[in-house]
Design goal:
This protein is an alpha+beta fold and 420 residues long. Helix content is 40%, strand content 21%. The strands form 3 sheets. Strands 1, 2, 3, 6, 7, 14 and 15 form a 7-stranded mixed sheet that branches. Helix 6 packs across helix 9. The longest helix is centred in the N-terminal third of the chain and has 32 residues.
Length: 420
Amino acid sequence: MSDLQKLRNQRAEVVTQMRTLHATAEKEERRFTEDEDNKWNVMVADLEKLDARIRRADQLDAAGQVVPSSLRAANQLIDQQNDDKKAESDDEKRVFEKFLRHGIGGLSQEERSLMAARRDTSNEARAFSQGTGNTGGYIVPQDFRNKLEIALKMSGGMLAVADVMRTDTGATLPMPTFNYTNVLATIVGENAASSSDSSTPFGVANLGAFTYRSPILPVSYEFLQDSAFGETFIIDALSGAIARAMNAHFTTGSGTGQPRGVVTDAASGKVGTTGQTLTVIVDDLVDLIHSIDPAYRASGCVFMMHDTSLKVVRKIKDAQGRPIFMPGYDGLSGAMSDQILGYNISINQDVAVMAASAKSILFGRFDKYKARMVKDITLMRLVERYADNLQVAFLLFARADGRLLDAGTNPVKYYQNSAT
């Protein structure tokens, strides 16, 4: 059994004990006894320590495997059904890794032809040639892109919960909205004319395409010759820079020269009373939940907050002295994830921490946030620019935009701490 699985099993055991303790008090309709409260606090501390260890172990596991086991199993089934496609993918991956290490000049004619087929001609800087390190961009292979996008999701909260769309071009993409919730039918007598609809239920939100570029990453030739160098190094080094920038904009972006963030487009759901600059109470969270239309709450609503805010919420108890935070068995995703008042939680480190007037907690349907990714992620290998330093440089870029689709019924709202 792997260390990661052992940690998850330990977490599941702690959660089972916590749920049993909670269920006992719930069944007897009473608050925790002093002894039960002490046990709960100890288990909460144990859970936090295990979560931290699981995150580290998961990151190490992801660095070596990246693709989750369920996805690997699905890929293996597809590979068995299509051996030719697998062979082509393996060749593509092998050639791409060779390109990362040695450049075009280090490839055979057949391998250069394969890379040429993946060349991003829209960003080519000069002619494709055998003897030089071409500065044109190369569209990353499917396997590399899958790993990269998983790394993006692991780095930020929004890409894990938003509705991500991929388009072939960066042309303005109109996203229509329709709100007919305020229109009522009327009773009309026999043979009488029907009334005309004078409302304006249709709207539109336009998505563009902002270009995100990672910083240029110089790598020494000595390091390139090291067998430890590979695509995982590129994923870790470059994807993090893009992921952090995208997530920040998808969360709080102004919409001017950058995507429009979910906080920017969210509506006010609850404002804390005077004195709650660093706190939130159960009633605030209940009010925030019920500020969202029941049609949205019926499925898919999620709490989103900074980890520091979650630390505050995890300590809150209801009027009967029972915690409102319920840990999941693995703390990862799905029905068994951590919950607050029955709703799943998404951690986003770009949401404001609790402070005076901070919009610190979001709640609602985050799949109504549309994140638009244009075409494919492209990697550039720069040779001549750093040649005198015996270095090769890498640059990754992607085009994206995002916006919350709101037809007027506010699918996402925020809790705002009091000003004083």
